[in-house]
Design brief:
Blueprint (H helix, E strand, L loop, with lengths): L8 H13 L4 H18 L6 H12 L4 H17 L17 E2 L7 H13 L3 H13 L11 H6 L1 E6 L2 E6 L2 H13 L18 H15 L8 H15 L3 H8 L4 H7 L2 E2 H11 L4
Helix pairs in contact: 1-2, 2-4, 3-4, 5-6, 5-9, 6-8, 6-10, 11-12
Length: 281
Amino acid sequence: MQMRQKITREKIESFRIYLRENEKAAATIQKYIREIELLSEFLDDAYITKEKILRYREWLRSKYQARTVNGKISAVNSYADFAGAEDCKVKFLRIQNRPFIDESRQLGEAEYRKLLLTAKKMNRERLYYMLLSICGTGIRVSELQYITVETVKDGKTEISMKGKNRTILLPKELLKKLEHYIEKYHISSGSVFQTRNGNPVNRSNICREMKMLCTQAGVDQTKVFPHNLRHLFARKYFEVEKNISLLADVLGHSSIETTRIYVAASVSEHEKILEKVNLIL
């Protein structure tokens, strides 16, 4: 029996509590709430039914790429679980893994270095060290809070996210730079990267600051966001050590298939492989 209910503000807030109780990351909660608000707008105060969710999936499909659609459907299905309406859940779109990725969306190493140099020139020291920390370790932007004065002294940090725990080693060169930053700004304890109020910086702080660098650095703004630093780390790591299982552990991925997306060859690299095959006579 399909649920006969509407999405209300009260139910959205209850869903937020449900996600917290299920130990979802703060960024995931924010995303899921945003997606359910979007679904609510689409339904326009109508009751939720399986048929309407299927129509919503088709509407999403007309506007977004398949992976984006599946991310949105994941939030919808989670809401259906919360509301006791498992019969309203819908399947994800089928996606065949591509052997190569669109390099126009990748942040290259040269562009990353431009961002670092520009941050230095603009005296944006905190941003400079945040870029180094994310790209030097492959951590998520939400995990930056785990780089603390204490973990810098220890040389490694324990990250607990999405119900999983993993240890991240901090490279020696990064440790030296962070120690300098901590000493210069007299940070005695807690998160290395703090706001003026002493709270750990959040995703919006970092994204905003990164976008401000783009014009000065001459880097395409569409490539500049924290997750692309994580992708760059993954590609460079895989160049050195072609062990995708180990890389998945370092990145905190549950599935190696997710890691494969990070290290897929670019279009130009794929073209070079095709040329080497040399079967066009």
